[in-house]
Every structure is written in C-alpha cells, then in structure tokens.
C-alpha cells in the first residue's frame, strides 16, 4: 500500500471506528431512553387509572357475591370495560385490573375477541407486588404469544397500606422496537453522511499532503543524485506544519552539505599539497641520512686507525720500558764495576740517544692520535646536527599526521581510511623521533669518550715531554760521567733514582695508551650501532614515503568523490 492509501486509511479508520462506537452506544442509550419513557408513560397512566377509580367513588375495594369488583358502592370495576378500551385506543397501552392475583378487568383480547380475565399473575409478580408492595417492570413478558413491555403497580385499600390488587399496563414490544429502529436508522444515516463528508475532506487533505510530500521527495532525490543547487517552492516554506518544517530542513541540509563538500574539497586539496611537501621533505631527509651514513663510515675508519695507532704506541711504550729496565741493569753493573764505568757510560749515551729517538716516535704517534680524536669530535658534532634535523622533521611529520587525523574525523565515513593512514604516519614519526633520540644518546657517549681520550692523550704528551727532559738530563749526566769519572758514584746514584721514575712513568704511559685503545674500540662499536640505527631510519623513511604517496592518492580519491556533488 502506498503512503497515500496509508494516510487515507489512518484518517478514515478512527472516524469509522468512532462512528460505529457512537452508533452502538447511542442505539443502546436510545433504546434505554425509550424504554424509560415507556415506563414513565405507564406509570402516569397507572396513576390516571387509579385516580379514575378513586375520584368520586369513596369506599373500599370489595368483591361481591357475583364475583364483581367494586369501588365503594358506585363503581363496578369489573364492568368498566369502556375505561380500559378508551385508554388503549388513545395510548396504545393495554390495561388490566387484578383483584389479588386474579385478572378481573383487561383490554387484552385473544384471537376470538375474548378478554383474558380470571387468569392468575406469575409468581415473581405476586412476590414483588402483592407481598412486597413494589412496582414490577419488565421488557420481555410474553402474553398470548406476543412480547410486551409491562408495569405492575400495587392497589392499596383505601385508608390503609394493604395491597388488595394490581394495575397492569403493557404495550407490545414491537411497537416500541419500531420506534427504536426508526430512530436508529435516522442516527445511522446521520453518521453515514458525516462519514461521507469526512471521507471527502480527508481525500482532499491527503491529496494536498501527498502532493507536498512528493515535492519534498523530488528535492531529496536531487540531493541524493548530488544536485545541491535546488529551489524549494515558496508555498512549501510558508507552511506551518511538519511538511513545511521538512522543506526548511531540506534547505538547511542542502546548505550544510554544500558547506561540507566545499570544505572536504578544500581540505583534500590542502592535504594533497601537504603530502607532496612531506614527500619532498622525506626525500631531503633521505639524502641527509645518506650523508650521515658516509660520515659515520669515515668516522668508523678513523676509529679503526686510531685503535691501530694506540696499539702501536702501546708496543713502543713497552719497548721503552724494556729499555729502561736494561738501562737500570747496566747502571747497576756500572756502579759495581767502576773500573769500566767510562766504557759503559759511552754505551749508555748511545742507548739514551736511541731512547730519545723512540720517544720522538711516540710523541709523533700521540700527536696523530690527538688529531684523530679531534676529527672524531667534529664528526660527532656533524652527526648531532643531523640528528636534530631528523628530530625536527619527525616533529613536523607528527604535527601533519595530527592535522590529518582531525580532518579525517571531520570527514566521517569518507575519512576512515584516511584516519588509518594518518595514524600510521604518526607512529612512524614517533619511531623516527625515538631512533633519533637513541642516536643522540650514542653521540653523547661517543663525544664523552672522545673527550676523555683527548684528555688522556694530552696527559701522555706531558709525560713524554717530561721523559724527554729526563733523557736529556741522563745524557748530560753520562757526559758528565765521561768528563768527571771521579764523580761517577754520585752520578750513578742519581741515574738509579731517575730510572725508577722512568719506570713509573712508563707504567702510567702503558695504562694511558691501553685506555685509549679501549676507548677507540668502544667508539668503533658505537659507530657500528649508529650505522645500524641509520639503516633502520632508511627503512622507516622509505615507509613514510610510501605512506605519503598512499595518502596523496587518498586525497585525490576524496576530491573525486566530492566532485559528484554539484555545488554551483
């Protein structure tokens, strides 16, 4: 069933139900009212009959020896046929007079014209009227095969409350039914006319409503087809009912959809521009990370070289220690063999000269180690700057992904996939930021270790300079021994003391060189970890680039989707 039929049915069914209900209720009330009026009429007729018997006829009711009922001595009720017939002729109501429970006078006759007298009343009537003195009424009493509406009223003996008889009044039920049915038919015709009138009015109203609804449906159909430039008939907007509200809401919906579509198109275009910019930034970051990787590789080679130099310095310092031990032994023998002191002193001078050459080599190695450590610090500074650039780019990417998530939420269902991509970009930016933080920590540790190495190298340089001074002093002492053999004993004591100092210095130098080698190895390991982190960043940047391209594709798809709507 179409909407028109449904509305028409909804408007007529209540009216029809109301009309049927009114007819049924009114028919019952009319019937009850007519029956009540009939009873009232019978009651009035009863009073009139009793007044006829009693007015001008004083005396008690009595039955004579001939079976005649008298009122006093003047009125023979049994012979007052003309009274009951006159009442029936004028009112249509049958009248019967009872003496006790027996009919004495009646206007009711059978088919042969015989009056129905000397018959007894029913038990219920006797009980209620004769014994209880009540009025008895009934709508469904059968008399001579015909239904009657009857009323029994007690007759009291004059001057007392003794019930001596009854007055019966009855009218055929068919007579009352004819009146009731006639009124019912009239009422039914009125209801049918009203129903017909309501039907006609409802038909025109429904047509008017359906016509307005069809106009609104056409507007909604245009909106569903993407046509947002619609014109609403002024009569629809002037309506004060729900249809007018619907037309106004359609206008508001069209304006809202037009605004949303324009915003989505503008945001999608802006998003496309932003994704292009992100893609360009990702390419730049990729190039920067390639340079960082090259710098890290160079730093790794530098640290490897630094480790090798430190190991060489360790070997040289060890050799220097062995020489110092030999020198000490020779000085001890010289002290014991003063006779050959001069010859041994000349050999010692030669050994001191060799030691001086070795210390020069050590000094050059330590200087080279200092330069390499400085280069390492410069490389670490470059990596730190690059890491700060990566952190800034990751923060910018995170901000762009947050803006993309906001725009996706505004887009609703169309931006669900866009929201997923924005979330992935945000996670990648957070991972990039985390990796940059890890690189920054490694750089800080490497910078700290390089600084410590540089400090140790400076200490070694100071020690070597002191050692050179000591060697020069030893040479002067040996020359003094050669020139002043007599003072050899005291000179050898000084040499013994200086040899012990040289041993202590040698031990410290070995420790410093070993620490430098250990730090170089640690730097090399850190650089390897950093290169692994850079490799991860390479991969993440590749993922960001792919996601950015996919995001750009989504923005183009969104623009194509909103282009379905005709906003101008």
What does this protein look like?
With about 575 residues, this protein is an alpha+beta fold. The chain has 2 domains: about 5-195, 2-Layer Sandwich (Beta-Lactamase), CATH 3.30.450; about 270-380 and about 445-555, Four Helix Bundle (Hemerythrin (Met), subunit A) (Up-down Bundle). The chain has 9 helices and 8 strands. It has helices at about 5-55, 80-90, 125-130, 175-225, 235-240, 240-335, 340-410, 415-485, 490-560, and strands at about 60-65, 70, 75, 95-100, 100-105, 135-145, 145-155, 165-170. The strands form 2 sheets. Strands 5-4-8-7-6 form a 5-stranded antiparallel beta sheet, sandwiched between helices. Strand 6 and strand 7 (about 145-155) form a beta hairpin. It starts with a helix and ends in a 6-residue tail after the last helix.
In short:
By secondary structure, the chain is α+β, with helices and mostly antiparallel strands. It contains 9 helices and 8 strands. 77% of the residues lie in helices and 8% in strands.
Number of helices: 9
Would you state the CATH class of the largest domain? Answer: Mainly Alpha
Mean of the pLDDT scores? 77
> Which geometry do the CA atoms define?
rod-shaped
Distance between the first and last residues' Cα? 38 Å
Largest sheet properties: 5 strands, antiparallel
DSSP, total strands = 8
Give the strand line-up of the largest sheet: 5-4-8-7-6
Helical amount among residues, as a percent range?
Answer: over 70%
Order of helical and strand elements: HEEEHEEHEEEHHHHHH
Tally of domains: 2
The low-pLDDT segments are: none
